[in-house]
Design goal:
By secondary structure, the protein is mainly alpha-helical. The protein is built from seven helices and no strands.
Length: 148
């Protein structure tokens, strides 16, 4: 049942991204170009998302647990560390340069456009490289790794 609900939620999210044109890099880049051909229409998309999400989260988090799970899976820390700052900076830089972020890029794969396919492939490679990099750092900082 969880997979069916996840599929429905993903299709609804993807449909919303398509209808709002958030998967069109040119639309996003024009939104970010406040000094040039600024297109403020995505403010309505973001505002609509926030208008639904903020009260929705307040209502949902009053429940003892989600409908299809035994507990909520919420962040356990509110710390702003170097990893968060670097990651969010890279996300913003990528969004500003390419006009795509992960969600709209994955939805955009249905178009078959080579720039979007290339973006998703390099994004996945970046995830993989970061995972390897973090694992190496953890191995080096582990007390067991230093003994051997």
């Amino acid at each position: 049942m969880q997979l069916i609900i996840a599929l429905i939620a993903g299709l609804l999210f993807g449909g919303g991204l398509a209808v709002s044109q958030m998967m069109d890099p040119a639309k996003v880049l024009n939104f970010l170009d406040v000094a040039g051909q600024w297109d403020p229409s995505l403010i309505l998309v973001m505002g609509g998302a926030l208008a639904l999400t903020i009260p929705g989260f307040r209502l949902i988090l009053k429940r003892p647990h989600p409908v299809l799970d035994g507990r909520f899976h919420l962040p356990t820390t509110a710390d702003v560390d170097r990893r968060l700052v670097i990651g969010s900076s890279l996300f913003g830089l990528g969004w500003g340069l390419a006009g795509l972020c992960p969600g709209p890029a994955v939805v955009g794969l249905v178009t078959g456009a080579l720039p979007i396919v290339g973006f998703v492939v390099t994004m996945l490679l970046g995830y993989r490289l970061m995972d390897r990099f973090e694992n190496r750092i953890l191995e080096r900082s582990s007390p067991l790794a230093r003994v051997s």
